[in-house]
Amino acid sequence: MQSAATFSSPLTASGRFYKLCAQILQPSSQRHQSSYRRQRSKLNIKPDASFLPSQTEQHDHIIHNPPPSLPNVYHTPNIFLPDNDRRKIIPDPETSKARLLLSQQIPAMKGQQEKSYHLTIKEVEEMKELRKADPLHWSVKRLSKKYECSPLFTMYATMGLAPGKQEQQKLVTEIVKSRWGKKRREAREDRELRKERWYRDEVDELSDTFIERLRKAVAIPSVSADEDKRKDVVRMGQFLAAELESLGAEVQQRPLGKQPGKEHLDLPPVIIARYGNDKSKRTILVYGHYDVQPALLEDGWATEPFKLTIDEKGRMYGRGSTDDKGPVLGWLNAIEAHQKAGVDFPVNLLCCFEGMEEYGSEGLDDFIKAEAKQFFKDADAVCISDNYWLGTEKPCLTYGLRGCNYYSVQISGPGQDLHSGVFGGTAHEPMTDLMAVMGKLVDVNGKILIPGINEMVAPVTEEEKALYGPIAYTMDNLYESLGSKTGIFDDKDRTLMARWRYPSLSIHGVEGAFSAPGAKTVIPAKVIGKFSIRTVPDMESGKVNEAVYKFVKDEFVKLGSKNTLDVSCQHDGKWWVASPKHWNFSAASKAVKEVFGVEPDMTREGGSIPVTITFEEATGKNVLLLPMGSSTDAAHSINEKLDRRNYIEGIKLLGAYLHYVAEEPMVDA
Fold first, then answer.
1. Do the Cβ atoms of 305 and 220 come closer than 8 Å?
2. Where do the TM regions start and end (predicted)?
3. 92 backbone dihedrals φ, ψ, rounded to 5°
4. Which of 80, 126, 353, 435 has the CA that lies 20 to 30 A from 422?
5. Domain 185-401+576-663 is classified in which CATH homologous superfamily?
6. Positive or negative CA dihedral for 205, 211, 214, 215?
C-alpha cells in the first residue's frame, strides 16, 4: 500500500503534463500578444534625477527641462535654478547686455552663399529642343537621366513642348483596348456598369435637391430680349457660376462687350468652366444657354411662369424648365451625384453656357472661334442638350438640322397710305402685287415652285431610308401636335422626310398691312412680305439666294406694275448633318439603352441650332444633340414644362453618356 505522500492519481499526473507542455509552448503561444505586453518589463526604466523633484531644495519643486531647440543651457530662467547654482552669476537674460553676451556665445550661422547649378542655360535649351523634336523618345524620365536632374525640374523646364503626345497616348490606349479578349472586355464593362449604377441610385436619392436647384433657376426671369431684365440674365449667369464653383469646377465669367445696336447694354457673360484636368481621360465639351423667352401670366399661362409648379402627374411648369435650364443643370447634377456616390467622374468636362441664345447668340460665334484653340482645345467631342424627343416615351439622338434662309420682299408705290373709297381702282396697290408674287413661291402641298431649289437636294440613300423604319412615330402623333388632321402625307416616312431632310418654304406675315381686329379700308403705301426656306444637304446658301432673287424679280416684272420691288435675305443659317455611326453617337446610344432600356430613335430636326455648326467648324470635333425634354414640353409657348421623369432620368442619361463616351473606341464614321 502506497503512502499518502507518494500517491499520485492519473488526473494529477495529467495535470502536471499539461502544465509542462504549457511551459514549453509558452514563447510561441504568446506571439499573438502585443510587443508591449511581452517586453514591457524591459521598458521599466527609472527616470533620471533631473526629472524628479529636487531633494536638496524642498521649498521649490518646480522642474524645468529646457527643450533642445534652445541655443544653450544658459537660457534656463533663473527662477528655475537652485540658490547655489553657479549659472545664477550670469546676468539676467532679459537685459540687452545679457543678450549681447549670449550672442557672443552662440556660434554664427553659416552665411548665405550664391546658389550653384550643375546645368547651364545652354544645356536646358538643348533639353527643350530634344523634347520638342521627339517627345515620345525623349520622355521626362529619359531627359532627367541624361542631364542628371530631377524629373520635376525636367517637367517644368519642358512644359508644353509635347502638344501631340496626349493624342498619341490616347491612340496607344485605344490600340491596347482593341487587343483585349472577350472576358477582359466584359469584365471591364461590368465594372463600369456597377459604378454607373451606384451613380444612378444616388440621382434618385438627390432628386429633391436637383428639383430645388431647378426651382431656384426658374425663379430668375432671365429674359434676354427684355432690356429691363438684363440684370436678371446676368444674375442667372452668376447663379450658374456659383453652383459650378461649389462643385469644385474652375469657372470664368467671360464678358462679350456691348450689345450691337444697343450700346448702352452689356451682353451677358459666357460662363465657361472646367471640371477635371486628368490627361489620361477624354475631354467632353457641353453647351447650353441660361436665358429664356418672354413670359407673362396674362399671355395665357395657367401658373406663374417664373415659379416652378409641379402637378399631380409630375409635370414641372415654368419658363426655362425645358429650354434650357433643366438640361444645363443636368450636367451640374451629374457632377454632384458622382461626388456623393463616391464614383470617379469619367471624363474632363468643359462647359460653355451663354445668356443670349434666345436673342440670336450675339457675340458667341466669335467667342467660340477665339477659344477653339484656347479653352476648348482639349475637347474630344461636343454634346448639346437643347432639343426634344420626337414623341413622349422614347428618347432620341439627333444627327441633323435644317438651315434657314429668311427673306423680305418689299413693294412700295404711293407716297402715303390711301383711302380705298377714294383711290381704289386708280393706282397699283403694293398689297395686291405682294400677294401675287408670294402666291407663286409654293403650292398648297408644300412644293417649292422656285426653279432650281429642289434640284440642289441630295438624293435619299438606302442607308438613310433604313433609319426611318424603327422610329417610334405615328400619324396620330402628328395630328396631336397639329391639333387637327391637316397633314399633307398619310404615312410616317414621307412625313418625317418632309419635316427633316427636304426643304420647305413658309410664308410668315406682312409688315405694314392692317392686322388689328375690326375693319379698316386702307391701302398701304408700302408692304413687306416675310418668308423663309429651310435648307438641307446639299443646298448652298448663295445659290439659293440667287434663285430666289431671280424668281421674285421675274414674277414681279410679269405683273406689269408701276410699283417698285426690293428683295433681300435678312439672315441665313447653314444646315448640319453628322454621322450617327460616330463613336460619340454610339456611346450615347448605349447610354440610352442602359437607362431607358430601348434603342434610341436616330432623328433629324426641322429647325435650326446655329451654334451646332459653329462648334463643329471651330473645333473640328463631332457634335451630338442629346435631348432631355419631350415633344409636349411647349418650349417658347405658354405653359412650358419639363416632366419630372425626363429631368431625373435625363440626369442619369447624361451621366451614363459620360461613362460610355469615356471608354468608347474612337472609330470615326
1. no
2. none
3. -60, 125
4. 435
5. Zn peptidases (3.40.630.10)
6. negative
115 burial (CB, 10 Å; 0-12 / 13-18 / 19+) is exposed
Distances (CA, A) of 58 to 9, 48, 62, 65: 64, 18, 10, 18
Whether the link from the prior residue into 417 is cis, omega within 30° of 0, is no
What amino acid occupies position 457?
A: V
Measured CA to CA, the distance from residue 349 to residue 244 in angstroms comes to 11
Q: How confident is the model at residue 594 (pLDDT cuts 50, 70, 90)?
A: very high
Q: CA–CA separation, 553 vs 560, rounded Å?
A: 11
SS3 180: coil
406-434: per-residue pLDDT in tens? 999 999 999 999 999 999 999 999 999 99
Distance CA 506, CA 524 (A): 23
What residues form DSSP beta bridges with 287? 352, 384
Q: What is the 3-state secondary structure (H, E, C) of 302-336?
A: CCCCCCCEECCCCEEECCCHHHHHHHHHHHHHHHH
**pLDDT tens per residue, range 436-466:** 999 999 999 999 999 999 999 999 989 889 9
Q: Going by C-beta distance under 8 Å and a sequence separation of 6 or more, which residues neighbour residue 369?
A: 614, 618
Q: Is 301 helix (H, G, I), strand (E, B) or coil?
A: coil
Please state at what angle helix 207-218 crosses helix 230-246, rounded to 10 degrees: 160
Helix (H, G, I), strand (E, B) or coil at 643: strand
Burial class (CB in 10 A: 0-12, 13-18, 19+), 654: buried
Q: Catalytic: which of 232, 291, 371, 572? A: 291
Please give the pLDDT value at position 91: 61
- Residue 12 has φ and ψ, to the nearest 5°, of -65, -40
Which CATH class name applies to 403-457+502-573? Answer: alpha beta
Strand 262-266 to 309-310 pairing? unpaired
Cβ burial, residue 585 (10 Å; 0-12/13-18/19+): buried
Digit-coded pLDDT (tens) for 2-22:
444 444 444 444 455 555 555
How far apart CA 124 and CA 147 sit, in angstroms, is 9
What b/e string do you get for 427-449 counting C-beta neighbours within 10 Å, with b at 16 or more? eebbbebbeebbeebbeeeeebe
User: 512-540 as b/e, with b when 16 or more CB fall inside 10 Å?
Assistant: bbeeeeeeeeebbbbbbbbbbbbbbeebe
Indicate which residue of 323, 336, 357, 572 is catalytic: 357
CA distance 21 to 24: 5
Active site residue 291: yes
Ordered by start, the domain boundaries in the chain are 185-401+576-663, 403-457+502-573
Largest CA distance in the chain: 162
Whole-number pLDDT of residue 112: 62
Give 3's DSSP letter: -
* Cell output for 331: 450636367
Question: What is the sign, positive or negative, of the torsion defined by CA atoms of 3, 6, 9, 15?
Answer: positive
Closest Cα partner for 383 from 599, 245, 588?
588
Rounded distance, CA 225 to CA 359, Å? 6
pTM (predicted TM-score): 0.69
Q: What are phi and psi of 135, to 5 degrees?
A: -65, -25
**What three-state secondary structure class fits 192?**
helix
